[in-house]
Design a protein that fits this description.
- There is one protein chain.
- With about 80 residues, the chain is mainly alpha-helical.
- The protein has a domain at about 10-45.
- The protein is about 65% helix and about 0% strand.
- The protein contains four helices and no strands.
- The chain has helices at about 10-25, 30-45, 45-55, 65-79.
- The chain is elongated and about 55 Å long.
Length: about 80
């Protein structure tokens, strides 16, 4: 794996807490920051993910946009 060097500035408290976490996990601060960046990027929605939600709300109701509160309340009260 090829890595790119970068420099960041952390607040002293952030640095202390991150160093402690890295030491607890037995890894370097750099490795902890790489993992945090990887996890953050994996949680971000990708452009293709938005296509999956199109049409999820289809129903036979033609006034769902105007009456969504009423329909949600009805669905919740049935549970």
């Amino acid at each position: 794996m090829s890595l790119k060097r970068t420099q960041i500035y952390l607040e002293p408290e952030q640095h202390r807490l991150l160093k402690e976490e890295a030491e607890t996990k037995g890894i370097s601060l750099a490795e902890l920051l790489r993992r945090l960046a990887r996890d953050h990027l994996h949680r971000q929605p990708r452009r293709e993910d938005f296509g999956r939600i199109v049409g999820l709300g289809k129903s036979d109701v033609d006034n769902a946009a105007e009456e969504h509160d009423r329909y949600i309340e009805g669905a919740v009260s049935r549970e």
